[in-house]
Amino acid sequence: MEICFFNPSSLTEGGGAENWITIVSKFLSSRHKIGIVALNYSTTKRLQFDEVTSLIDRVDYYEIPSVKPPRGVALPKPFYLSTLLNIFNSYDLVYIILPSPPLELMFYLSKMSIKSELVAGFHGFLRRDVLLQTLYFPLFKKTLTSFKTYHVLNWQTFIWLKGACRFNNIFYIPNGVCSDLFQLCDDPSNSQSFNIIYSGRLTEGKGADILVEIIRFVNEKLKLQKIKFMIVGSGTRDYMIKALAEKYSNVHYFGFVSRKILPLIYRQGHLFLIPSRTEGMPLCLLEAQSSGLPAVGSNIPGILDVIINGKTGRLIHPGDIESFAQAIKEYYLLWHYSPEQYRRINRTIRKHIVDNYDWKIILGKIEKMFEETLANTTSSI
Question: Which segments constitute the Glycosyl transferase family domain (predicted)?
Fold first, then answer.
C-alpha cells in the first residue's frame, strides 16, 4: 500500500496526534510506501525538525506553508493547495486528522481533484452542542461524505458519528502504548513519599487550572504528609504551575521532558492525575497505566474508555476539586497502610493495558483498516 498521513500541525508540535502519526508511519514503513504531509504551523515547538526526521527516517516528510484563521485550525496557504493535492494523488490512501472545523470543508471542496481514498481520523471528541454549532451540523455531515472510512479513538465519538451522521464504515481503534518502554513502577514500599504525576500540555482543555486547585486543596485542606506532586509538560498555563512550585515545596515542575526520560518519571510514581476537560484518548494515561499507576481522571470520553472506575482508577466529574482530592487521599492511605495490596493493583493495571492497548495489537488493527478501505470494505469494527 501507498499511504499518506496529513496533519494540520507540524510534527515538531510533539502532541498526541503527532506522536500517533510518528509511531504508526514508522511501523508501516517497513512494508509500505509512507508519506507524511504537515502544515508548518505549531503552537508549541517541543521537537526540533531534525529530531522529527530522525524518528521517521524511511518516510517522506513534507511541510506546507500555512495560514491560521481567527477560529479553527491552520489551513494551507491557497497558493500551495495544488502542491498538497499533487502529493496526495501520489498515494493510494490519505489519512487526514480532523481536529475541528473547517478543515473537512476544504477537503470536500477539493474532492474532485483528489484521486486517493480518504480516511478521516477523529483524535478528539466531537460533541454537537459544543464543537459543532447547530446551524453548521448539516454542512459538517455533508462534508464528511467525501471520506470513505472514519477512524475514532473512543467509543463516544463512534456512537456520535454512528447516531448523528448515520455512517457505517467507522473503525474504533484506540490509541496504543509501548509497554516494553513503559515498565512496571518501582515497589511502593521503598519510597519515602507518595508521588502524584501529571504529564501533558498545560492548557485549559487539559485542566491545568483544575490541577492547580486540586494541589491547593490537598495541601491546604487535607494536609497529608509525604505527598509530592511531579508535573511534566508545557503550554499556555505553565506560569500557573511555576507559581505553584514556588509556593509549595512538594510541587516539582519539570517542564517539557523528552520521551526518553518519561518512563523513568512514571516508574517513580504512585498515582496519575488527569483532570482534563476534553480528550480523544490520552497517550499519557496509557503510558502511566502501562507503568502500573492507578489514575484519577475526569469522567469524559477518552479517559473513561481507559480507566475502569474502582478497579484501575477513579472517574471524577470534571472540575470537582474536592472529589479529586478525596480520591487522592484514598489511594494515599492505601499506599501508606497496605503496600502489598497497592503492588497487586499496580500489576492488575499494567496487565489490563498490555492486554488491550499495546502497540503490537493496535498497529495490526490500523493496517487492517487501511487494507479494508482499499478493498472497498465497509466493516464497522
Answer: 190-350
Whether 318 maps to a domain, the answer reads yes
Q: How many whole angstroms separate alpha carbon 350 and alpha carbon 341? A: 15
If asked whether residues 148 and 230 sit together in one domain, one would say no
Do both 206 and 192 map to the same domain? yes
Rounded Cα distance between 249 and 323, Å, is 23
**pTM, full prediction:** 0.89
Identify whether 381 is part of a domain.
no
Going by their DSSP bridges, the two strands 271-274 and 251-255 should be labelled as unpaired
CA distances from 64 to 8, 61, 77, 238, 260 (A): 9, 10, 8, 29, 29
Residue-wise pLDDT tens digits, 295-349? 999 999 999 999 999 999 999 999 999 999 999 999 999 999 999 999 999 999 9
Residues 215 and 75 in one domain: no
Contact assessment for residue 303 and residue 311, using Cβ atoms and an 8 Å cutoff: no
Is the pLDDT at 126 greater than 70? The verdict is no
42 versus 203: the higher-pLDDT residue is 203
CATH code for position 273: 3.40.50.2000
Domain count, the chain: 2
- Closest of 172, 164, 109 to residue 131, by C-alpha: 164
Of the chain, the percentage scoring pLDDT greater than 70 comes to 93
| Residue-range definition of the domain harbouring residue 25 | 2-176+359-374
Cα 216 from Cα 229, distance rounded (Å): 11
Distances (CA, A) of 381 to 152, 190, 340: 10, 44, 39
Residue at 305: amino acid letter: D
d(CA 305, CA 307): 6
Considering the domain architecture, whether residues 47 and 170 belong to the same structural domain is answered as: yes
- For residue 119, what are the contacts with CB-CB under 8 A and spacing of at least 6? 93, 94, 95, 96, 147, 148, 149, 150, 151, 369, 370, 373
Please check whether residue 269 is in contact with residue 230, taking contact to mean a CB–CB distance below 8 angstroms. Answer: yes
* Gap between the Cα atoms of 30 and 164, Å rounded: 38
